Amino acid sequence: MKPIRSTVAVLLVKFCGLLPLSVLHRMGEMLGYLLFKFDNKARKVTKINLELCFPKLSPVEREQLLKQSLQESAKAVFEAGPMWLWKTEKVLSLIHNQQCLEPLKEAINSDQG
């Protein structure tokens, strides 16, 4: 059973690598919304973590943060394919915070993983 799961995972990563980032972000938003709406482990764990980390937030504020957190996490999952498969130049062109660009380029060029 594991070989089938890993094959499916690899195919999904490759498929995501073919799609534009805007489409992947939309897919992540939808998946995150579903994770927010239905009972699941990700929702439970994130909710507990938010209660522990932000006890002063109102329940309404924590619910909003829960939804946002699940959506952003799902976006990150869909971004994995492009980040692994796209050319370095294309990935670097997506960086908006230029302060971190030079150390990132140095790390990539060091060929040390």
Brief summary:
With 113 residues, this protein is mainly alpha-helical.
Would you write up a description of this structure?
This protein has 113 residues and is mainly α. The protein has helices at 2-18, 21-37, 41-53, 59-85, 88-92, 101-109. Helix 1 (2-18) crosses helix 4 (59-85) and helix 2 packs antiparallel against helix 4. The longest helix has 27 residues, at 59-85. The model has no long low-confidence stretch (mean pLDDT 90).
What gap, in angstroms, lies between the N and C termini? Answer: 30 Å
How large is the radius of gyration?
17 Å
Query: In what range is the share of β-strand residues?
Result: under 5%
Largest sheet: none
Multimerization state: single chain
- Tell me roughly what share of residues is in helical segments: over 70%
Structural class of the helices, strands and pairings?
mainly alpha
Extract low-pLDDT stretches. Answer: none
Averaged pLDDT: 90
Give the strand tally. 0
Number of helices: 6
Shape: globular
Q: What string, H for helix and E for strand, traces the elements in order?
A: HHHHHH
Protein topology:
Elements (H helix, E strand, L loop, with lengths): L1 H17 L2 H17 L3 H13 L5 H27 L2 H5 L8 H9 L4
Features:
113 residues, 0% strand, mainly alpha
